[in-house]
Amino acid sequence: MSKIRTHILGYPRIGEQRELKKATELYWKGEIPAPALESVGKELRKHHWKKQQAAGIDLVPCNDFSFYDQVLDAICLFGNVPARFGWDGGSVSLQTLFAIARGARDSKAAGSECCGGSCGSGSAGFASEMTKWFDTNYHYIVPEFKADTQFKLSTTKIFDEFKEAQALGLNAKPVLVGPVTYLTLGKVQDSANPDFDRFELLDRLLPVYEEVIAKLAAEGAEWIQIDEPVFALDLSERQKECFIESYARLAKAAGSAKLLVATYFGELRDNLALFLGLPVAALHYDAVRGEAEVDALLNAFPADKILSLGVIDGRNIWKNNYDASLAILEQAKAKLGAARLWVSASSSLLHSPVSLASEKKLDAEIKDWLAFADEKLVEIVTLAGLLSGSGDSAALEANRASQKRRRESRRIHNPAVKARVAAITAADGKRDSVFAVRQEVQREKLGLPLFPTTTIGSFPQTAEVRAARAKWKKSALSDAEYDAFLKEETRKCIEWQDEIGIDMPVHGEFERNDMVEYFGEQLEGYVFSQFGWVQSYGSRCVKPPILFGDITRPKPMTVGWTSFAQSVTKNPMKGMLTGPVTILNWSFVRDDQPRSVSCKQLALAIRDEVLDLEKAGVRVIQIDEAALREGLPLRKSQWQEYLDWAVESFRITANGVKDETQIHTHMCYSEFNDIIGAIAGMDADVITIETSRSNMELLDAFVEFKYPNEIGPGVYDIHSPRIPSVEQMESLIKKAGAVIPAGNLWVNPDCGLKTRGWEEVRPALINMVEAARKLRAAALAAV
Ligand SMILES: Nc1nc2c(c(=O)[nH]1)N[C@@H](CNc1ccc(C(=O)N[C@@H](CCC(=O)N[C@@H](CCC(=O)N[C@@H](CCC(=O)O)C(=O)O)C(=O)O)C(=O)O)cc1)CN2
Ligand SMILES: [Zn+2]
Questions:
Q1: What span is annotated as the signal peptide, if there is one (predicted)?
Q2: Could you give the ipTM of this predicted complex?
């Protein structure tokens, strides 16, 4: 019986100990030169290929590595560099690449200290926009188009990395984001032609794809992988036409090389026939997210193509259930034959942590249930072996035993939690009185001025704060010393807020490593890894906690810090929590029950925290739901169901408090238009949102909807190192004041300040308070 081939779509690039992050940040600080960074990249690529080879993967990817982002690499490959970066049209340098991602203080684009977001329109080389890659927590750089955009082959990275693999004896499979996905993910930014249809650019873009593909073929590439995850979205007729035109041309350009087109993250639905009809040699399908559609896929699968089935979840950390995967694979093998079936992971492994090998502290029982990227490689190879009949039956037995242990573990199931979720009623999600009544009571209790000023929660997570935490984790700092250090940071932060005249202070979140991980660490039903980092954007990583079982809160999580903070000031301190939907969306979550159930369990745990804070005398509580919007399913038809349980979860969390307790929520990086009804349904007393970068445009949704509750539209773009002036912020508040009743308007930044430095935050907040004061005075003078 013939051997079944194995491959992956991509491998994490950050390194087991985030080597790439560390080297990149040193380069940005000017502490190592470019060749040193290049050589770290080269070593990592080699190490990653060797690991894949050692695991027995037949076809390894190349060009899945990136110093920042694979879409940004494509921007550079196509010479799609926005004019403001002063690119000379030659080979795009690493320096220009980083300038696109991070902004450049001047057109020389040196490694300036800048953010991952955009640098505001005031500076010449402001960064390109960054946004979420489908429904993941990975962010890509948004390609920018104009009506006169031209494309031209402008980097050699994809060829260099192919040759690098060749030199190591590997015939690697180069990976490239596909033309339709590339155009779909980009944005037209052309003030002279704002309505330009970006798909008009296809004819100019395809010749570069043809050139790249032909060149790779000439250099000996057997397979080329083209990623088209937009197949998992609702596609327009225009996009469908683009697919037909693109692949007719690319198939011709391929010559001796064979093309594999990959879709992932969701079902194909009415794109199925289009996908199956592409004139390419192989198609990759996500059988995890698309399991329900596998029958339809197999029934219609063309006789001349290879099918790569992604049965291992690239987006989660659970050990694969071999029996379940084999059932799918056997079915495919019966239809297609072993020669036309490849085994893979559902998506690139970019979205899973690197390796379980260095996890020494992870609870042994739970570690046995997990598989990170390296373990997933072994799973792919093992499944292919079992399917070929030459497999490791001991591995299958071991897998069955592990699945059984997980299923039956007492650690997972807590009857009291299940009963509590079952007993949730509509009353749990309802405040005693309607907003208008609460607003009166809260006004009286809180005694805030017009246009009250506040911030979103975090203050700078300085190197000093992180170093203290690192020392404490290594036991180089005692609990008492760490506690004293944090108290001092918190006290200084609050006193400073009082001093500059912030009306509603926050404690600063110095004790938190991350707004989700911090809560995960304190909830029962969660475990957390030491090194389970996943790239979020550029060099920034997150370590999502692992939600494995029914959720309880053994003891209050934030009451101590918030009470301490309140004791420092007479002003109303805003207690700070992360909401259930955001905790869910930024965690690795169980795959043995619906997300909605896990979310409600989280909601009940955070509700208890809310009520404890209230009992401790905290009068204002913010419940962050930064990730509410990004949890939206990729297909519109599934939105309502998600929004229903997400909003209900928030309401359960927030709405058990008395009328006089003011509930805030916060959302950033959100387009609000299509979910404004759901946001209003949350019924928070105050919502703070990110609006400064869009010049208050994001507020329109609230205005059109006649959003009834109070709003703090952000006036300070915290993604930029630029310090906003009093006048800039005044004009933003005025703009908001023209459409929002003055009594409902708050003044605050776009988001938390944790990624900024004090030298930026101090003057910016002083200006913000001044802007609010001026408007207040003007408003009082007018009556
Ligand atoms: N979970 C989550 N998802 C999110 C966001 C978010 O805030 N959280 N925001 C958006 C993405 N934005 C992000 C913004 C910042 C960072 C970020 O700053 N990440 C840090 C890690 C944050 C962290 O957990 N740090 C830990 C560990 C710090 C660390 O690595 N320490 C060093 C030692 C440090 C020293 O000695 O100074 C080490 O252990 O090696 C801590 O503070 O405790 C980083 O990559 O640098 C990530 C995402 C969307 N998704
Ligand atoms: Zn935010």
A1: none
A2: 0.95
